[in-house]
Amino acid sequence: MKPLIAGNWKMNGLLADATALAEDLKARAAAGGLACELLVCPPYPHIGPVADILSESGVQVGGQDCHNAGSGAHTGDISGAMLRDMGCSHVILGHSERRADHGENDAVVRAKAEAALAAGLIPIVCVGETAAERSAGQALAVIARQVKGSVPVGMAAERLVVAYEPVWAIGTGQTATPGDVAEAHTEIRRVLVGLVGEGAEQVRILYGGSVKPANARELMAQHNVGGALVGGASLKAEDFWAIATSC
Ligand code: PEP
């Protein structure tokens, strides 16, 4: 399976910024020949216009979160079916900013992942330890606990993406060492075998945390790394494209 390079635009930019970025990516994608799949996850109000621009480009569009219910009285939330209806193929779930800002725990993330799958989306389930947990030597245990608690059991491996994002590396310019990344991804793969069976080899495990053009190639070359989840560098088409062409 091709690596997946996913851009998380977070809560950045206005509609004109999102459409300009999408137009730029569309123009670059027109040349073809990328060795990876490309995905962008805009803020909700920009998903429709971005999906329209990218519809024939091969660049996929995803959401940054969805609710675990199909519909109902959940003011301010959005369902997996709504994302699918807007043209999304994927949804990021359990990002550390959601876990911190909205108190999302593993059970909530798993329920959201189940809802996303039911809606026909591929969940990108995020896990990762804090700096304190790493200093205490608990990084692998935390990652294993989050994967066990957040990933739906017995699901089809090709419908799942996991992202390892050490919290201390997100938006800080600090990147995990290639060795730490390889170790964490090997642990995630080991836990996935228990959850999805032999197909676990097919699950793409993305690395996220200050990925940029200068470090992407080395990170992507690590064992069990199946792509990247990119925050800040995905807001500049030139940088995102340089990462995509590092695969
Ligand atoms: C992210 O938020 O998922 C992320 C990895 O951000 P950044 O690339 O900016 O560290």
TrEMBL record:
Pathways per UniProt: Carbohydrate metabolism; erythritol degradation; Carbohydrate degradation; glycolysis; D-glyceraldehyde 3-phosphate from glycerone phosphate: step 1/1; Carbohydrate biosynthesis; gluconeogenesis
Cited SUPFAM superfamilies: Triosephosphate isomerase (TIM)
Name of the protein this chain belongs to: Triosephosphate isomerase
Pfam families per record: TIM (PF00121)
Amino-acid positions noted as binding substrate in the UniProt annotation, renumbered to this chain: N8, W9, K10, G171, S210, G231, G232
Subunit structure, interactors included: Homodimer.
A single BP term in Gene Ontology: glyceraldehyde-3-phosphate biosynthetic process
Catalytic residues in the record: H95, E165
First-tier enzyme category under EC: isomerase
Catalytic activity: L-erythrulose 1-phosphate = D-erythrulose 4-phosphate; D-glyceraldehyde 3-phosphate = dihydroxyacetone phosphate
Protein localization: Cytoplasm
Family: Belongs to the triosephosphate isomerase family.
Role summary: Involved in the gluconeogenesis. Catalyzes stereospecifically the conversion of dihydroxyacetone phosphate (DHAP) to D-glyceraldehyde-3-phosphate (G3P).
